[in-house]
Structure formats: structure tokens, C-alpha cells
Specification:
single chain, about 300 residues, mainly beta, 10-stranded antiparallel β-barrel, two-stranded antiparallel sheet, 3 helices, elongated, disordered N terminus
Length: about 300
């Protein structure tokens, strides 16, 4: 009976995985519209030409979804502190055509406008108000995983009537993508002030501002995988139509975001909620990407 139960669970798990893999949010840069026209390329006139501006916009919005999050106030854990945290985030993106490049978007011929991510955090306090951390973030319903590391320095913390201030540098790389590579680097400034309520709960509201730098590289894209041309040795793929999107380099754009959050600590258990907004995008004060996230952590 036990073996049958495990076998049934295994079959259900494989079936679920197969379903999500078919209609997930993995991104395919050679995706097309319902009429067969490319979303990020044009093949009329030949040869096919990439939409480099669209690729840059897509990578920028995706970077805001998967970039390292501030996820806490400015204060550090102390030189002997250790924290393990699990978080969820939901991110809204624009309704532009490039979000039809997900597998779900191709199936439904509609932009995918919401992404769920899960994040596992490890943080370790160090002397001199330093703190190091490692994290891994998974975009649900996809094969995309983003591991990263960070270093925080609280240059002002622990005074009764003065807010805490910290600086943080963090980097992560998106893995599990077939058509591109994406790396994000963020530099954050955080201000917070913790206080105790009823001798049992410590609350710490915080405000953060980040600079986000993006590095994105495209693989060779075959926009016409089913098209072959005649050659002396027979039929061959029409490689003349293959292309690579222009690189997005760290120094190209200075992307920014703001975060507002609250962390409540009950003994060794901490609960946090945070909102992030993209800033100064395409001449607008607020960009299209916004995120709400929560975190549950154990601090020692």
C-alpha cells in the first residue's frame, strides 16, 4: 500500500511538472504572434533582423523581477548572529508584446503580466557591523533560478534616538534560460528605525533606494527552425536568418527602484512585508514593474 501511494505521488508529480513545463513562464526569444510574425524580430525584408530595443526592455523588466531584494531593515544581526529566511514575491510587469514570449504567452497569445518567485536566504553577522548573505530565487512555473551573494555594512546602527543606516551590494545570475544570460548587480541604501512594542514584539519599518545594473547576453536565435534551403549536399538550415541580440552591458543604463517595508520580530521568529517599485523609466516617475513580497525568518 505504501509503495503504491509513493508511486501514485510520483506519477502525479511528473504529470504536474510536465504540465507546468509546457505552459510555464520560461522565455523563448524566437516566439511569434498568432499570424506567425516575430515578436522581437522581423524577416521582411530578409534576412531576419532583431528588435534590440525590445530585447533591452524585456531584460530590464525581467531583471526587476529576479534582482536581489533588500528584504529587511538596515540593522545587522551582530557578529554572532545567523538567519535563515524563506520568502515569496509577486511581481507585476507591463502588458507589452514581449511578455507574450513566455511559453504561457505563446499558448494563450496574451502577455504574461504576473510572476511568482520563492526565495531562500542565509545571512551571517560579522564584526564591525558587517553582514554577508547568500540567496537563491526560483521563478515559479519555470526552470529559471537565480543564485546570488550580498554584503551589507551598517555604518550607523544601535543608537536610541538616531535611525540606522546601511549600504548593501548584491549580485545574482539567472540560470535555466535557453536563449539568454542575465546578471544583475544592485547597490542599496537603507534607513530604518526599530522599536519595541509591549516588550514582546520589535517592529522595524524601513525605506530603501537601489541602483540596479544589468548585464544581458543573447544566444544565437534561429527564428525559422523549420525552414531549410537547397545546397550542393542537399537541404540545410537557413542559417542566414539566424541572429544575436545586441548585448546589454552593466554601464548602459542606471536603473533605480524604491522599497518600503516592515519587519516584526517575535523572539527568534521574524516576519516581513515589503513593496518595491521601478523608478524613472521611459520618462515616467514610476515604471511598470512593481513587487509585493513577504518573508518568514528564524534569527539566532
Amino acid at each position: 500500500m505504501v509503495r503504491r501511494t509513493w508511486a501514485l505521488l510520483a506519477v502525479l508529480g511528473v504529470s504536474t511538472w510536465a504540465g507546468t513545463a509546457h505552459a510555464g513562464v520560461d522565455i523563448r526569444l524566437a516566439g511569434t504572434r498568432g499570424d506567425g510574425e516575430g515578436i522581437l524580430f522581423r524577416c521582411d525584408p530578409a534576412p531576419c533582423q532583431p528588435d534590440n530595443a525590445g530585447f533591452r526592455s524585456l531584460m530590464t523588466e525581467l531583471a526587476y523581477v529576479v534582482a536581489p531584494r533588500i528584504a529587511g531593515p538596515a540593522e545587522t544581526l551582530g557578529h554572532s548572529g545567523f538567519e535563515l529566511g524563506l520568502g515569496w514575491a509577486g511581481s507585476f510587469v507591463s502588458n507589452e508584446d514581449w511578455w507574450r514570449l513566455t511559453e504561457r504567452g505563446q499558448d494563450e497569445q496574451a502577455p504574461t503580466q504576473f510572476f511568482n518567485t520563492l526565495r531562500l536566504d542565509l545571512q551571517k553577522g560579522l564584526p564591525l557591523s558587517l553582514q554577508v548573505g547568500a540567496h537563491v530565487q526560483w521563478v515559479l512555473d519555470s526552470q529559471m533560478v537565480a543564485p546570488g551573494i550580498e554584503l551589507r555594512w551598517a555604518f550607523q546602527e544601535g543608537y536610541a534616538h538616531i535611525p540606522d543606516f546601511s549600504l548593501r551590494a548584491a549580485v545574482n545570475t539567472l540560470l535555466g534560460t535557453r536563449d539568454f544570460d542575465l546578471t544583475t548587480f544592485s547597490a542599496d541604501f537603507v534607513v530604518s528605525k526599530g522599536f519595541t512594542v509591549g516588550r514582546a514584539v520589535r517592529l522595524a519599518p524601513y525605506l530603501g533606494w537601489s541602483i540596479l545594473l544589468i548585464d544581458a547576453r543573447s544566444e544565437v536565435i534561429d527564428p525559422t527552425p523549420t525552414t531549410f534551403v537547397a545546397s550542393e549536399s542537399g537541404l540545410r538550415p537557413d542559417v542566414e536568418n539566424d541572429f544575436v541580440f545586441a548585448d546589454v552591458d552593466f554601464g548602459d543604463d542606471l536603473n533605480q527602484r524604491v522599497a518600503l517595508g516592515l519587519r516584526a520580530t517575535f523572539s527568534v521568529v521574524a516576519v516581513g512585508v515589503q513593496g518595491d517599485l521601478q523608478l524613472f523609466s521611459d520618462g515616467e516617475a514610476l515604471g511598470p514593474v512593481g513587487t509585493v513580497s513577504t518573508q518568514l525568518a528564524l534569527s539566532y
